[in-house]
Design goal:
The protein has about 500 residues and is an alpha/beta fold. Helix content is about 50%, strand content about 15%. The chain is flat, with a radius of gyration of 29 Å. Bound molecules: zinc ion (ZN). Zinc ion binds next to α7.
Length: about 500
């Protein structure tokens, strides 16, 4: 089955053909590490981690690169506000970002190059563009001359005139064209020394767009296969990456441009620069969300929507998705109860199992697998793929009911049921789901403790009513040994945990 990818460049789905047979190079723009990352910064990694898993399943050897922007105006301002250095701030924010990605099951990134560690490559690219007269030096800055690019703005499909008209009032006398953008920025006197790099044009630092051009070609060559990022990066960032790289090397930059939808909260775009959004931003900071919700649920929320559509992160939306995820957990609990085996420990899938008399059920499950693969091959339609997994749950439950496996049943049929669950888990694995037993949520174990304490307190009350003081004292003493104190009050007995 052939894989089709929607390409922003051609604005249609295209059959995927890699530059080098059997290999895929994929670059995704990463975060600027100046403030705690929010959920929007994890959406892209979750999506492209899934893209990589599927490509690997299809037999490709995939190299995935995500850059870290650790030299930037925003870092300079924030480091100053926090009375720290740019490297310290960048390292701290990057560390917590990586921890969050690990929890979210994003494990496929092969290289995470930092802009600060690729200054020579960036300078080299600037020099090559200057030598071609596609870039020029102006007062210690280096600008890209947009008239040198063939088909400038071909990714965003904008007209160059509109772009120039829109920026005309911002233009200074230093540029050839109002739309020219900086490849290199001269150091300003008040900027900290750690972000002032030596260059042929004096001290300075790279612009944002050039770092992605320089680092992607270093790790993946040119052209490479897939370039990804959020839709908000199409213009100007990706338009400018294309202009620099294609003008510099006279060959295509990346063949397939994949853009994920933006993260929304109550249907509003999540952005640190929106003041209204800034008020609720704390809730959407990755570290805080991961304290509130299991990582698997957040991953499930992201992948339940097609990646090109907006992804909603309100509490209501997450709660709705949680219900869906729990229907899988209930099936896993049921199979564990029936077989006495841990479904997360793995085992043969249905197509690996030799079993007689279950051809019809095997066929049903094979059809689910085919439809799952079709959905994934259709521009990584994870939402539709999850829809197929949802349909598989009642089919397996029906098999369990028909063979009365809950009431004992036969061992061979139990093995078939377990194998069908393993087939489901294998598909979930391509999405990074159902890999480990979900941690019991603090919420549900808290609820359980409350209910159990209610039971014990009413049993003790009944015992006292029946003058069975030995029993009521036993309950109190045993709870006391667990650090739980009972207090008899006029309105009833209350309990509290003492440390
Ligand atoms: Zn980029």
């Amino acid at each position: 089955m052939s894989l089709r990818i929607y390409n922003t460049l051609s604005q249609k789905k295209e059959e995927f053909r890699p530059v080098h047979p059997g290999k895929v190079g994929m670059y995704v723009c990463g975060p600027t590490v100046y403030k705690p990352s929010h959920i929007g910064h994890a959406v892209g990694p979750i999506i492209f981690d899934t893209v990589k898993r599927w490509l690997v399943h299809k037999g490709y050897e995939v190299t995935w690169v995500v850059n870290i922007t650790d030299v930037d105006d925003k870092l300079i301002v924030e480091a100053k506000a926090q009375n720290t250095t740019v490297p310290e701030l960048a390292e701290r924010v990057t560390k917590s970002y990586l921890e969050a990605l690990e929890q979210l099951g994003v494990r496929g990134i092969d290289h995470m190059p930092k802009a600060s560690e690729h200054i020579p490559e960036i300078i080299d690219m600037c020099q090559r563009l200057i030598a071609k007269n596609a870039a020029y030096v102006s007062g210690g800055d280096v600008y890209f001359d947009i008239t040198a690019a063939r088909d400038y703005l071909k990714l965003s499909h904008r007209k160059a005139e509109e772009q120039q008209a829109g920026t005309r009032q911002l233009a200074s006398g230093e540029k050839r064209n109002p739309g020219d953008f900086a490849l290199w920025k001269a150091a300003k006197p008040d900027e900290p020394p750690e972000v002032q790099y030596d260059s042929p044009w004096g001290k300075g630092r790279p612009g944002w767009h050039i770092e992605c051009s320089a680092m992607s070609s270093k790790y993946l060559g040119q052209p490479f296969d897939i370039h990804g990022g959020g839709r908000d990066l199409i213009h100007p960032h990706h338009d400018n990456e294309i202009a620099q790289s294609e003008t510099c090397c006279d060959k295509p930059f990346a063949n397939y441009w994949m853009h994920n939808g933006l993260t929304t909260f109550n249907t509003k775009k999540v952005s640190k620069s929106d003041p209204e959004m800034a008020r609720i931003m704390d809730q959407l900071v990755l570290g805080n969300l991961l304290k509130k919700y299991p990582a698997e649920l957040l991953r499930f929320v992201v992948l339940s929507t097609h990646y090109r559509r907006p992804i909603e992160f309100s509490d209501e939306e997450i709660a709705a998705k949680k219900k869906g995820l729990e229907s899988f957990y209930r099936l896993f609990e049921r199979i564990e109860r029936i077989t006495g085996q841990d479904p997360y420990a793995g085992g043969p899938t249905l197509d690996q199992l030799q079993a007689g008399g279950v051809d019809a059920f095997k066929k049903i499950c094979a059809d689910f697998q085919d439809r799952f693969a079709e959905a994934m091959d259709d521009d990584f339609n994870t939402g539709a793929a999850i829809g197929v997994l949802f349909e598989m749950v009642p089919a397996i439950n029906r098999f369990i009911d028909e063979h009365q496996l809950e009431a004992g049943g036969n061992g061979e049929m139990k093995a078939v049921a377990m194998a069908s669950v393993q087939s489901l888990r294998a598909m979930g694995g391509f999405l990074g789901l159902f890999e480990r037993r979900p941690p019991a949520s603090a919420e549900s174990s808290g609820e359980l403790v409350e209910s159990l304490m209610d039971v014990l307190i009413s049993v003790r009350a009944e015992a006292r009513k029946a003058k069975q003081y030995a029993l009521s004292d036993l309950i109190r003493d045993r709870l006391g040994a667990l650090g739980i104190t009972l207090e008899d009050r006029p309105g009833g007995t209350v309990w509290r945990k003492t440390d």
